Each structure stands twice: as structure tokens, then as C-alpha cells.
What we know:
- The chain contains 19 helices and 28 strands.
- By secondary structure, the protein is of the alpha+beta class.
- Helix 8 runs antiparallel to helix 9.
- The protein is flat and about 105 Å long.
Amino acid sequence: MHKKAPMSHNGKPGTDRDPGITLAMALPQRVADGASTIIVEAGAQTPAPGPQPGAATGTPRYAIVGHAGSGGMATVHVARDLELLRTVALKQLAAGIAGTGSARLRFLREVQITAQLDHPQIVPVYGLEVAPDGAPAYAMKFVDGRTLEDLLEEARTAHEEGRHDESCALPMRIEHFLKVCDAVDFAHDKGVIHRDLKPANVMIGPHNEIYVMDWGICRLFDRDDRDEIEDAAVAPVTDASGGHATEYGAVIGTPRYMSPEQAQGRSDELGPLSDQCALGLILQELVTLSPSIGGGDAQQMLVAAAHGRREPLLEYGTRRAVPAPLRAIVERATALEPRRRYASVRALADDLRRYLRGEAVQALPDTLWQKALRYVGRHRQQVLLAVVGLVAVAAIGFALLLQRHERELLAQQQREARVRTLVDALAGQGDRLQLRLMRLQGELDALATAATHLLRHGQPADALLYWSQDYRDPAARPPDFGPQPGFAQAVSLAYGVWSHPPQVAREAVLPEAQRLYNLLPYRNELFTEARSTLGDGSGASGVARFVIALESGLCVHYPGVASLAADHDSRNTVGYRNSIGHRGALWGAPYVDAESGTLLLPLSESLRTPDGAALGLASIDLSLDYIVHNLLGGSDAGDGITVLLDAEGRVLASEQVLTGGAGTDGALRLQPFPDPALVEALRDDDLGTLETEAFGDTATLAYDRIQPTGWILVTRMPNAQLYGAGGR
């Protein structure tokens, strides 16, 4: 294997760290050949206790006496060591995947890395073994205790019952957390990142000893070959886990405790700073006793994690804000951009210890006034002797200063709370639109997959097809052809219009048309999904047209129209040329429809064979007017003015009125947003606030970028309205 230069805590090249972990990418011969049978089930006949000379030739060493837990990859047993007469935990690769090479290598990597992480807070490994069925296993220390997740549940129960339990009080919870930080920092020094840090993976022993468990998806972050056995897809992210269980696939980890880069699937960028973000989310949960990332299901949590959206830092039950220094530590450790986090987990732990000692923290340096207060706290007697003659005057002045400071602090907290409410309302509105667009994109993907299958393997249907010349002949048109609500010309909603270029014989494309006719149920499902995700209850779908165009020249257009030219060739259109070379769904730029004069938003996906050859294109054009009115009509931003911008910062809609139009040359004309500072702010963060005077008064802008279209949702609220009559 090729090795990179040693890495420092922040993932940058350095020379002062132990190279750490080594891996053998094949199972040891003793384990691979199954020559040593070392596990027996409980109740089976076992040799007498004590050293067994035959252990190396098949004599059982471990007797399974109980079940500790199981997951998708492995099962953990409670076992008895028949040689050393001790209880151990025996982790065995699941039988269903034991024969899979990638699973066995992943399992071997887990035990090799865990065994080399020799630290008091990392569970020790006793040995690599093999079960009678050939599945690899390893023995490790049996920890008879509870998880940090159990401790959090006990703390919540104690708080709700109004009793004080020292074993789960905040100081004890932070003490446990600092031990976890020490273990993770040690692993980072060895070049290992955990990638699945969460309360359920931290064990607390009966004497408050801490063990960081389950290194099953850990990774060496300073190796060129670190992905050679990476992340075989076991299951996609689903709602069944509730965001607590480890998920595998393009995004791997536990959604509730993922860093933004991990939730976005940027695996190559993961390093110690990603683990630090997970620790910051755990710290927030330890302080507030509430999940750091909310959401009803794993998909919603994944979206929130990808955008770095956390729940407010409020005390459990009282809903009071946690102390500002502690809040600053959490916010820095969980910053959206890794470069804004602490340089290392050790720096995070050191800052938390400063907070516990009552010192200023790096995440929130003291003001001059705070430094003075700390000095007075440490030198009470000297200060008292120095000011004893001025005690009366000083007491009055000091009281006035404190009162003013408290008023300013209270006013600042109220302003922050109002801005946070504005941002949360806008983010919720943006999330709903984003999920709806992604659902519609999923339906088009399913339709494209079905069309590809029908073209390659479908049976032709003996169905009535209406060609473009039929539509131009009043006597041959479909029976439902005529004016329809929402369309600028007469159409047929029941039948499409089939066409091919004059140079292509109909007999050449007729079999493809007869096979694609069976796509009708998928088309109806697409329109049904559009009505449910974008509709306003009127029954309209918001889909202006749906087209399938093939490389052979065949084209079907829904709804059926009579305006297709006799020499129409979809392969020569700009949309077809721009999309046919793109893999996966593609959201195009809005354009002005030449027939209706309205703004349309195109979504397309190419049809491809398994070997990548292009068959054609499936596309839908959505009415931007329809989408925008349904979006802005249900604004959550109170009395603020909501504006929708395109990815370039140009105004698509404002106050439920579309502002785009066509110029004299037919091109789309959009006005830029009045404050260009908004586009600059979006370069640093996809969600946030900005103060502006571009509208004649001092106002606050809240903004949120909508994926996958790249739109920008903006709410403008005058400060006088946001903060009250006094403004700021």
C-alpha cells in the first residue's frame, strides 16, 4: 500500500505524529483456513478449565453463554474463556454475509484497528478467532454497564421527577464526555477516524470507566488506499432507524450525529474535523438532554445534517438558553464549514475544561468587562481593600452598570430569538419545497427506468396511436381534443401526439412506439405525484408538458397538440442537446414558453442502456407560475415579504407575482436582487441572515438555498417591525 506523509490533528501534512495503524488486507492464515475451531455453543461438552495444549489444533476456547446484541453486520455474544476463566464479549460476523469478501475484510479491518488503539477509553481486543462455520470473530473485554444513551434517558427521567441524581448530573456527563474526547484524540493521532460517534457507542462501566465502542466503519484518513474496501452497500437510508442506527451506502453513519460533509456523501473529505462535529452534537445533547438534530424520520434528519441545522441550545424543561461560553463551544465544534471548527478534538476538550474552571474560552473570548469581572473574582480581598474608601459611590455606579448591562443583554437575546424565529420559519418553508421537488425528481427517474426497460425488453401493444398529421386533420383528432383549463391552445389530455422526422420511416419507429404505449400508468403516476406535491387542491398538476424523445427520431408529447411542425425533430432542440449527455436528473434554467408566454422550469433525465449508451430523453416542463404561487401563498415568515430568486440572484417572484418575462428577442429577462451583498453572503453559507438598507429602510434578510434547483428563498423584514418600535 502507498502511504502519505504523516498528518496533524487538522488533517494537514505534518511530521510530529506516530504513523500509527498498519493493516493486512487479507485474513491471517490461521483464521482463513478454518483450522482452529475455538467457539462452542452454551451447553456443549467443553474441556476442563485451564490451559489446553490442543487449543491450536481445534480445542474450543470460548463457550457462548448469552446474547449481548446484534446488527446488520455482526452479532455480539457473551462468552466464557475456557482457558483464562473470564467472561468476554465475542463479536462474530453475521452468517449471511460471512462469505462476502468485502464484509470479511471490513470485519478484519475493524479488529486490527481496534486492537492497535491501545488506550484506557477504548475497549481492548483479546484475539482474532474463527467460528465452526468459518465466520471470523474476535474476543474483547466484556463491559458490564450502560451506554451514554442510557445515561441521558436516566437524566431526563430524574429531571422530570424533580430529583437530583449525582451519577447523571451535568458535571458527571461532561466528565464522561471529556474521556470520550481523549480516546478519539488518541485515535486521530494514530490516523484513525471513527465516523459513527454517538451516545449508543459509548459504554460506561460500573466504576465510571468509559469505553468508545463499535469501530466497525472507522477509516484511516491519511492513506491513499483507504477506500479499497470502503462501504459495501448494506442498506439505504430509511425511516426505520429513526436516525439512531448506523446506515450504509453512499452516505454512511448515523443521520442524527453526522457532520454536514458526511451527510452530503463527501467521503473523501472526511477526517478528524468530521468526528469533532459528531462530538459537538453529542455535547449539545449532553447539555440540553434533547437531540441536537430534530426531524420525524431519517431523511429529514439527513437534510438537516447536510445543512448544519441544529435544534436551539435550550435547557431541558425550562427552555432557558444555555450559558453563552458553552453555547459558543458547541457552535464552533459543529460549524458548517470544517475550517471554522477547532483545530483538533484536543483543542475542543481543552476549551471545555477552561469553561469548567471558570476561565475564558477560545470559542468566545472575554470582553474587557468580562476580564475585569474574572480578575475581581480571583482577587477579592485585594480589590476590597483598594476600594473600601469609595464603597458607597462605587456600589451605586456598579449597580447602574450592571443594570444597564443586563438590559442590553436581555435586549440582545430578544433580538437573537426573533431573528432565529424568522430563519427557522424560512428554513422550514424551504425544506418543504426541496422535499417536494426531490419527490417529483424521483418519479421522473422511475419513469425513465421503466421507459428504458420497455424499449429493451417490452412487448408491443396493439393500441391506437395518434400521429402529428392526425392532429392536424380535424376528422382524425382524438375525441377529447379541444380547449382545456390551464392551456393556451386546444389539447388532448387522454392521448399524446407521436411524431418522427420526415427522413425516418414510420415502420422503423412503430415498434418502439407500441412498446412505449405501455408507459401510460407511469405517466399517470407522474402526474398524480405532481398534483400531490405541488398542487393546491384544485386537481391541477402544474405540469405543462411531458415528452419522451428517442435517438431514433421517435417522439411522444403529452398533452397532445396540433401545433407540432411536420418536420419536427426533437433531437435538434436545445433542451435535447443540453441534456442527452448528462447522467441522472437535470434541472434546467427557467425559460419563456413561445406558445403561452409563461415561465417554465424543465426537468429531464436521459435514457441509457446498462453499458451507458444513450437511448433518448424523458423530460417534463413545470409551470413556474403554478409552483411559485403555491409556495409563496403559504409563507411561514409572518408579515415579512418573501422573494424567490434564481441561482444567479435574479428575482423570479415577489409577493406572489412572477417578475420574469420575455424581451423583444424572446429571451428570458429577470431583474437582479436590489442588494448584491446577498449573493456574496451565499458564498459562505446556504442559510443565514443579512442586514440591508437597499430598500430605503434598515431591514433584515433571511435566506435559504433550495436544492436541487439552486433557487434562493429570501424573506425581508424591516427592523422596526422585527424588533419593535425602537428598531435596533
